[in-house]
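Researcher: First entry.
Model:
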Amino acid sequence: MYVLLGLSVLAVTIILLKLFQFLRSGVRRLDFVDPALAALQKDDHNGALATLQQQRSPVAVVMESAIRCGADRAMSAKDVEAEVSRVGSAQIRNLESWLRGLSSIAHLSPLLGLLGTVTGMIAAFMRLEEAGSRVDPSILSGGIWEALLTTAFGLTVAIPAMAAFYYLEGEVDHVRAAMKDVSVRVLRHFGKTPDYIASRDDERIEDETHGI
């Protein structure tokens, strides 16, 4: 029970810290994307960068990197893709920090609770054996409900932790998709679309041509 109590405190701490981080970063705010792209379409790179630098969003950081790299004529499309991917991966790793720990707590808590129940049941039956012929049902029933408390507490810790993990993981996936979308749109403006996107577009055009 003390171990589970410690894990519950750790889980609550992780959840609150991640929620604060996500709220502070504005992971759901994407209202800056369209103004930055509009400035980019007008070849106002400084205006687009100024719009992005006012944001704390990881998407803004990746978009800013894509604009700077795309505008650099010395960088090839492959180099630009590698650099933008590096920046995006760093932002995603920052968002995913401690999520694995939260997942571990959610998976380990029921097992620890079950372990406590099993050891408690063993202790209850040992007391029952020691009683011999003077068997008192309260000895067994008291030991059983005490043992089952650990399983209940383990599930109480695991269920909210697992729910929070899936929610936070979904937010990270949303940010990852937004990063990919804005980086492709920016690099397409500079004619430095990643190879896998360009090849997919070529296949689509070829299919449409054959259809005609």
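Researcher: Second entry.
Model:
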Amino acid sequence: MQLLRLGPVGEERPAVRTGDGTTYDLLPIASEISAGADIDGAFLANDGVNRVRAALDAGELPVLDTGGLRVGPPLARPGKVICIGLNYRDHAEETGADIPGEPVVFLKTPDTVVGPYDEVLVPRRSVKTDWEVELGVVIGRTGRYLESEEDALACVGAYVLSHDVSEREFQIERGGTWDKGKNCETFNPLGPFLVPADEIADPQNLAMRLWVNGELRQNSTTRNMIFPIAEVVRYLSQFLVLRPGDVINTGTPAGVALGQPEPKPYLRAGDVVELEIEGLGRQRQILGQA
């Protein structure tokens, strides 16, 4: 089951796509369980996934004509976007960073989230815009001070493909926190869809790839994380409350522009980035200029 949102920016309509490729309108269910009538934190917290399954089994959802509709980010109104840096050993090594003893944590603002095929803008005065394919974890149940991996995974509502776009000069060379290089406009394409957590057999064994202008740049698997998903969720809950609709970007493997020899192939307007994670679909963005 794939949960997605279709339509123009700000007018997306919740939908569900089944294994046979049919897309159904989710607005009737979303209107009942979410004040925003959408796929959001309230939808996940109020057993929206199982209610969709029941409605599909009962044949209660109308078919939705998707012709010509834009694919928006599959989660409406994300809460926090929490990111884990240097969570793949090969990525830490290629950038010359020490292997972290604890997860490296930074935040993205929710308004960086855009659709999986939307334009990504190279910031003004940027010369080091970079790519990062990542597994996104969507929280479906409130978690605070979690103690066990089992409790941590029980808080995960869905998984999603995420693109953690970064500006390395702003992030590393301008002083202060990483956040300046992570929160530029359009810097977190998400989607194309959410997959409920219980439908991903092993989120710690998913192939992940990214191409720039047709050239394969990243080719790895989520089993190479330093801190696995359960530990990341447990760890974060010691410092902040995880709430339904929060997104965790769990880190990127080797192959980013920052880790390449000079001249490093940073992104420019007109470049095309494509990325995918096994079972979570594929994104494609054309870079524009802010």
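Model: Note on the second entry: The chain has seven helices and 18 strands.
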